[in-house]
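Pilot study result, target chain (297 residues):
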Amino acid sequence: MDDDLSLASRLGWEQLVSYQTINGHKIAVAQQRAETAAHRPLLLLHGFPTCTWDFYKIWPQLAEGRTLIAPDFLGFGLSDKPKGHIYSIAEQADICEAVLAEANAADIDVLAHDYGTTVAQELLARQREGTAKLAINRTIFLNGGILPEGHRPRPIQHLLAGPLGPLVSKLLSKDRFKRSFSAVFGPNTQPVDAELNMLWDFMTENDGHRVMHRLLRYMAERAANRARWVPPILEPDIPLLIINGHLDPVSGKHLIDAYRALGGKAEIVDMPDVGHYPQLEAPEAVKASVLTFLGQP
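Predicted structure:
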């Protein structure tokens, strides 16, 4: 990568991106291979409604001594966004397995956020069932709806997931997105306008905002798959770290309190002053926690 181009810029970020065709769809994969791999490859899984660029602030430090592999899920970011598609978490997990197979990375760690935590839960369920095509050694979750009963969707998500979803998708605007997105951040850790503009650009690539209502079926999938997806995180077979921004109205302190009440065995890092995007709001603290957990203090 050209060091003169910051990952904060689209041009700088796209230097990391290559494309793979998986099940007939173009999938964008940000990837940086370690010259000397001292650690296992790290799979980064992004959230809804954004893309892998969410990790740009912590990417350089995570890449020291390890290969990073970060697909934009189908329907997100720079990947294809088929209009009539029925999107599913299982398909996104299949895509992850295919991306890792192409990278010859079968023994990995995982860092997941939001929607990505649900994809990771599917991968962990497959690992527990003995059907996985990869081996996950350590997993880190940033804020996400890991317990369906603890997930509190925003009003716009309720609208998009309902019968008026197709119409609401057509009415999405940049200003509405900025207001809704900023509302899940902490009051003192708000995104800057340049970040909001970049995220809107990635979201609207290939009219991606027009498929938002189709992507949101994952909320119903969480409830339907609770019996498979929740046990591997309550009683994990591998080390699991959860970093939780308490001020997140969607999956903040109320969710981590519910996880603790169920006797969840993960290691937890509480971030009382942070909202839904710890990696953007408190990148230095997130980097420190992630690297310590992965054995690189």
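One observation from the pilot: Residues 188 and 273 are 8 Å apart (CA to CA). A full batch analysis is planned for the follow-on phase.
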